[in-house]
C-alpha cells in the first residue's frame, strides 16, 4: 500500500512538472530555453536563490551547454527537489522581519531610494529593470514610500 | 561629546548610503530578493498560461468551423436536391450567379443612391485624391461612417484595379527604397491608425504590404478595408494587398464581418457583402520583394510551386474552404445524385474531407493534443481518431491522406479527370498558402488543428526557398506575444499587427521595415495607452481574468460531460474527488491541452484536504441569464456550446439577410445541427425552445436576440461576460 501511494504521489509530481515545463516548451521539442528554467522551478512553488538556481542548472545542462535544457534531464532533478522539499517558501513573518532589518529606523516603511540601494547593491543584486518593476508595483504613490507589510500581503500567492 | 555621539549614530544609520552594510542586512536583502524573484516567476507563468488558454480556445473554434463546413460538404455530396436539409445550405455553394463584368457593374450601380444633405461624413470623388483619402482616415478616426454610395463606388473601383493585378505582386526596393510590411489587422482600426502615426501613411515615398486578415473579430473591419482599398487606388504601385484566410465570405459568417456590415449598413449591407465576395477572390495571393523575399498570409507546403500559383485563375476560389467546381464535360445529370466512391476517382468530398481523412499519429503537436470541442457522446473517452474513422466510414472513404495524395498524382484516363486534377492541385496550393502554420519538426503534415492547410517544417522551408531562389519567407496568420517571431533558422518570420488581440494587454502588434539590404527591422506597439502604463502585475491580472472567464465558459459548456467524468472517479459515490482526478477528468473532456494543475488554484477555490466537492463546483460555474431558464438544461448546454455553429447556420439559412428566421427555419437548423453532432432531438423540444426564445412573441426569431440570450453570468466575477463575438456599434 505504501509503495502504491508513493508511486501515485511521484506520478502526480511528474505530471505537475511536465505541465509547467510544457508551458515554456513552445515547439514541443521537449526542451526549454535555459533562461526559462528559473521561472519553471519557481512556478512549482520553490524559492531558490540565484546561486542555488545556477547550481541546479549546471546539474541539468548538457555536457556541452546548448542553451537548452532537456526535459529528460530536468524531470528527475526537479522531482528530487519537490520530494525533498528543497527551496522552501519564506514564511510571511520572516519576510517582514527582513524588511524590518532594513528599516533601521523602524518607520514601518522604506523610502524608494533606500530599497533601491539595498536591492541593487546587496545580496544577489537586482538589475535596473527588476528594481524598477518592483518599485512601480510597491510604491505608495501619494507618499513615495513602500509600506512593506502591505507589499508582502499583496505579493504572496496563497495557493500552493 | 553629545554632538559627536549623535553624529556617529547618524553615520551609522545612514550606512546604507555608503553601500557597505552588516551581515544581517545582507541576509535580509537576499531573502527579499529571493522572495520577489519567485513572485515575478509566478506572474510570468500565469501570463504564459493565459496565452495558452486564449490560443487553444481560438484554434479549437476554427477547427469547429471547418468541421461544420465539411459536414455541409458531406450533405451536398451525399444527398439529393430533394433533401430539405441540403436545400437549406445549398445556396452558399452555388456559384455567384452574376459572372460577367458588365452585369456586375450594372448590378452594383451606386448611381441611384443619393447622398442626403444631412450626411456629415466624408465625400469621395473618383479618381481619388490625397485629400479624399486623408478625409476618409480622419472621418473613421472620429467614428464616422462612409455613405453606402461611396462605399459601393470605392469597392467597384477597387475591383477594377484588383482584376488587373497578377497573382503574385513583384516589388522592388530600388524604386521604393523602404517597404513596410503589416500582418493581421482583424478589424483593429486603432492599430492601423497607430501604424500610420508611427510610420507615416502610404505614399509614393512609403510603400506598404498588408499581409491579409484585414477583417473579422475586431469591430472596424469595413473601415480598415475601405482605408486599404483607398490607399491602393491612390498609390497602386506602392500599396500591395495579400489575401488572408479571413478574406472569405464563409469564414466571415462566423467571425463577425458579415454581422458588422449588416449592422452598419442596414439597407445595402447585403449588396456590399456580395460585392466583397467577389473582390476577396481577386486579391493577390502573395508579394515578392526583389525576387528574394516572399510574403504571403499563411505559409507553404512541400508542394508549393510559385509557378503554378502564378498561372492560376485565382478568382475561381471565392472561398478557399471550397474546392473548385468539377468540370464535367457533357455528362448530364451527374452533379449530385448517386455519387459513388470509386477507387482512384476523385470526388469533391474527398477534397473537403482531406483534413478528416488523415489518420493522425498519436504525438502531441506543440502543447496541444488532439482537440475536440464536441464530445457529446457519454463515452467521454471517444478519441478523435475514432471520430475521424467514423466520419470517414460515413463518407465512404477508405483512403488515408497519403493514399489520397498519391492518387492525386496518379495517371488518369479521362479529360475530365485531368482537368480536375490540375484544379485540385491548384486549390491545394492556394489553401496551403492561406492556412498553413510552421512547425519545428521536419516534414509536412495536414494542419488538423485549423482543419485546412498544413504544418510545414524547416526542411520544407529550405526546399521551397531554394526552389525559387529566395532568402526569406514573411507570413502572418498566428498571433505572437511580441508581434513578431522568427523560426526555421530565421528563414521564416511571422508578423502580426493586431495588438491586444485576445484581450487588452495580451500581446503587442508589430510591423516590419525592409530596405534594399532586405534585413527586417521591427517596430512594436500596443494600441491601448493605459496598458503601457500598467505594471506587469496589473496587466497580467486583467488579461488573466478574461482568459479564466473564457475558460470557465468552456467548462460550463461541458458540464454534463464533466459530471460523468467526475462520477467515474467517484466510485463510492461520496460526491468528492481528488484534485489529481479533477485535472485528469477536465483534460479528458475539454481536450484543450492546457496545464490544468498549474491553473487549478484559480479555477478551484474551495477544497478540503486535497479533495473537491465536484457537484458544488459545477454549480458555481457561470450560468445563463434568467430568460433562458425555460429551456431544458441539457439543451441549454448544447446551445451554448454550439452557439458559434448555430449562428453560422442561422446566417446561412437567413439567405436574405433579414436577421430573422421563422420557427420552421429554426426547426430545420436544429435538425441540421443535430445530424452534424449525431444527437437526438425531438421536434417537441425544438418547438418549446423556439417559443421560449421568441421574446417578442411575433412568430419569428431574431438572430441577434438569440445570441444575446447566451450571455453568461460569471458568478465569481459578478459581471456579465461578453459573448465571444464582437459587437457592432449600432
Relevant terms:
heterodimer; A: mainly alpha; two-stranded antiparallel sheet; 8 helices; 58% helix; 6% strand; B: 730 residues; alpha/beta; six-stranded mixed beta sheet; disordered C terminus
Q: How would you describe this structure to a colleague?
A:
Chain A: Keywords: Repeat. Chain A: It comes from Scleropages formosus. Chain A: One of its GO terms (molecular function) is calcium ion binding. Chain A: This is EF-hand calcium binding domain 2. The complex is a heterodimer of chains A (160) and B (730). In chain A, 58% of the residues lie in helices and 6% in strands. Chain A has 160 residues and is mostly helical. Chain A has a two-stranded antiparallel sheet. In chain A, strands 3-4 form a two-stranded antiparallel ribbon. In chain A, helix 1 (2-24) packs across helix 2 (37-43), helix 1 packs across helix 4 and helix 6 (112-121) runs antiparallel to helix 7 (128-138). The longest helix of chain A has 23 residues, at 2-24. The radius of gyration of chain A is 19 Å and the shape is elongated. Chain B contains 30 helices and 21 strands. Chain B is globular. In chain B, helix 5 (130-141) runs antiparallel to helix 9 and helix 22 crosses helix 23 (579-590). In chain B, strands 1-5-6-10-12-11 form a six-stranded mixed β-sheet. Chain B is an alpha/beta fold and 730 residues long. At the A-B interface, helix 1, helix 2, helix 5, helix 6 and helix 7 of A face helix 2 and helix 24 of B.
Amino acid at each position: 500500500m505504501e509503495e502504491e501511494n508513493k508511486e501515485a504521489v511521484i506520478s502526480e509530481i511528474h505530471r505537475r512538472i511536465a505541465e509547467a515545463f510544457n508551458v515554456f516548451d513552445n515547439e514541443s521539442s521537449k526542451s526549454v530555453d535555459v533562461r526559462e528554467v528559473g521561472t519553471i522551478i519557481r512556478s512549482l512553488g520553490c524559492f531558490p536563490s540565484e546561486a542555488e538556481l545556477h547550481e541546479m542548472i549546471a546539474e541539468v545542462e548538457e555536457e556541452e551547454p546548448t542553451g537548452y535544457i532537456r526535459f529528460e534531464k530536468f524531470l528527475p532533478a526537479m522531482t528530487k527537489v519537490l520530494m525533498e522539499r528543497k527551496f522552501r517558501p519564506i514564511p510571511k513573518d520572516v519576510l517582514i522581519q527582513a524588511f524590518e532589518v532594513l528599516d533601521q529606523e523602524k518607520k514601518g516603511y522604506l523610502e524608494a531610494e533606500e530599497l533601491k540601494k539595498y536591492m541593487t547593491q546587496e545580496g544577489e543584486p537586482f538589475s535596473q529593470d527588476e528594481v524598477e518593476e518592483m518599485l512601480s508595483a510597491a510604491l505608495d504613490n501619494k507618499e513615495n514610500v513602500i509600506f512593506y507589510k502591505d507589499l508582502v500581503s499583496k505579493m504572496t500567492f496563497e495557493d500552493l | 561629546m553629545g554632538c559627536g555621539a549623535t553624529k556617529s549614530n547618524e553615520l551609522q544609520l545612514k550606512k546604507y548610503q555608503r553601500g557597505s552594510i552588516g551581515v544581517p542586512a545582507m541576509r535580509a536583502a537576499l531573502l527579499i530578493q529571493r522572495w520577489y524573484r519567485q513572485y515575478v516567476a509566478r506572474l510570468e507563468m500565469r501570463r504564459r498560461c493565459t496565452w495558452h488558454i486564449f490560443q487553444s480556445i481560438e484554434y479549437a473554434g476554427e477547427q469547429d468551423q471547418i468541421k461544420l463546413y465539411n459536414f455541409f460538404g458531406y450533405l451536398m455530396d451525399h444527398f439529393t436536391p430533394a433533401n430539405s436539409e441540403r436545400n437549406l445550405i445549398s445556396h452558399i455553394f452555388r456559384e455567384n450567379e452574376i459572372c460577367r463584368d458588365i452585369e456586375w457593374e450594372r448590378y452594383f450601380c451606386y448611381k441611384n443612391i443619393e447622398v442626403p444633405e444631412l450626411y456629415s461624413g466624408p465625400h469621395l470623388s473618383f479618381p481619388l485624391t490625397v485629400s479624399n483619402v486623408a478625409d476618409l482616415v480622419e472621418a473613421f478616426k472620429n467614428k464616422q461612417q462612409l455613405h453606402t454610395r461611396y462605399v459601393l463606388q470605392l469597392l467597384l473601383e477597387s475591383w477594377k484595379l484588383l482584376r488587373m493585378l497578377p497573382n503574385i505582386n513583384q516589388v522592388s526596393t530600388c524604386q521604393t527604397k523602404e517597404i513596410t510590411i503589416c500582418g493581421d489587422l482583424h478589424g483593429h482600426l486603432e492599430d492601423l491608425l497607430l501604424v500610420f502615426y508611427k510610420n507615416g501613411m502610404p505614399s509614393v515615398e512609403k510603400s506598404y504590404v498588408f499581409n491579409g486578415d484585414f477583417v473579422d473579430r475586431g469591430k472596424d473591419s469595413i473601415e480598415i478595408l475601405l482605408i486599404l482599398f483607398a490607399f491602393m487606388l491612390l498609390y497602386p504601385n506602392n500599396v500591395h494587398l495579400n489575401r488572408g484566410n479571413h478574406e472569405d465570405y464563409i469564414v466571415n459568417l462566423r467571425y463577425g464581418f458579415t454581422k458588422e456590415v449588416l449592422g452598419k449598413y442596414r439597407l445595402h449591407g447585403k449588396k456590399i457583402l456580395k460585392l466583397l465576395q467577389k473582390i476577396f477572390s481577386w486579391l493577390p495571393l502573395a508579394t515578392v520583394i526583389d525576387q528574394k523575399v516572399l510574403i504571403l498570409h499563411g505559409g507553404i507546403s512541400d508542394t508549393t510551386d510559385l509557378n503554378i500559383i502564378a498561372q492560376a485563375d485565382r478568382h475561381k476560389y471565392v472561398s478557399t474552404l471550397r474546392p473548385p467546381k468539377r468540370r464535367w464535360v457533357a455528362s448530364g445529370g451527374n452533379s449530385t445524385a448517386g455519387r459513388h466512391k470509386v477507387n482512384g476517382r476523385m470526388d469533391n468530398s474527398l477534397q473537403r474531407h482531406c483534413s478528416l481523412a488523415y489518420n493522425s499519429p498519436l504525438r502531441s503537436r506543440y502543447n496541444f493534443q488532439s482537440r475536440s470541442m464536441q464530445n457529446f457522446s457519454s463515452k467521454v473517452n471517444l478519441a478523435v481518431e475514432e471520430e475521424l474513422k467514423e466520419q470517414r466510414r460515413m463518407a465512404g472513404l477508405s483512403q488515408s491522406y497519403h493514399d489520397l495524395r498519391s492518387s492525386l498524382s496518379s495517371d488518369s484516363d479521362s479529360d475530365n479527370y485531368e482537368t480536375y486534377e490540375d484544379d485540385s492541385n491548384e486549390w491545394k496550393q492556394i489553401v496551403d498558402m492561406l492556412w498553413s502554420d510552421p512547425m519545428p519538426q521536419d516534414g509536412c503534415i495536414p494542419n488538423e488543428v485549423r482543419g485546412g492547410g498544413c504544418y510545414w517544417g524547416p526542411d520544407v522551408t529550405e526546399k521551397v526557398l531554394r526552389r525559387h531562389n529566395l532568402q526569406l519567407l514573411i507570413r502572418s496568420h498566428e498571433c505572437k506575444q511580441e508581434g513578431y517571431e522568427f523560426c526555421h533558422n530565421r528563414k521564416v518570420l511571422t508578423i502580426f499587427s493586431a495588438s491586444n488581440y485576445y484581450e487588452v494587454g495580451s500581446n503587442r502588434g508589430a510591423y516590419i521595415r525592409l530596405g534594399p539590404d532586405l534585413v527586417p527591422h521591427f517596430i512594436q506597439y500596443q494600441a491601448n495607452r493605459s496598458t503601457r502604463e500598467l505594471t506587469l502585475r496589473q496587466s497580467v491580472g486583467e488579461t488573466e481574468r478574461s482568459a479564466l472567464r473564457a475558460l470557465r465558459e468552456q467548462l460550463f459548456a461541458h458540464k454534463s460531460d464533466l459530471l460523468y467524468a467526475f462520477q467515474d472517479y467517484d466510485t463510492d459515490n461520496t460526491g468528492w474527488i481528488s484534485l489529481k482526478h479533477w485535472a485528469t477528468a477536465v483534460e479528458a473532456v475539454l481536450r484543450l491541452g492546457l496545464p490544468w494543475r498549474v491553473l487549478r488554484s484559480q479555477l478551484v477555490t474551495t477544497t478540503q484536504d486535497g479533495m473537491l466537492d465536484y457537484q458544488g463546483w459545477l454549480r458555481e460555474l457561470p450560468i445563463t441569464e434568467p430568460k433562458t431558464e425555460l429551456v431544458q438544461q441539457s439543451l441549454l448546454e448544447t446551445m451554448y456550446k454550439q452557439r458559434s455553429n448555430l449562428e453560422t447556420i442561422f446566417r446561412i439559412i437567413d439567405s436574405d439577410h433579414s436577421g430573422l428566421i421563422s420557427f420552421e427555419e429554426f426547426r430545420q437548423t436544429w435538425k441540421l445541427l443535430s445530424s452534424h453532432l449525431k444527437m437526438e432531438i425531438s421536434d417537441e423540444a425544438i418547438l418549446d425552445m423556439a417559443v421560449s426564445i421568441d421574446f417578442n412573441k411575433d412568430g419569428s426569431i431574431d438572430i441577434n436576440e438569440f445570441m444575446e440570450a447566451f450571455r453568461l453570468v460569471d458568478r465569481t466575477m459578478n459581471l456579465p461576460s461578453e459573448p465571444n463575438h464582437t459587437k457592432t456599434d449600432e
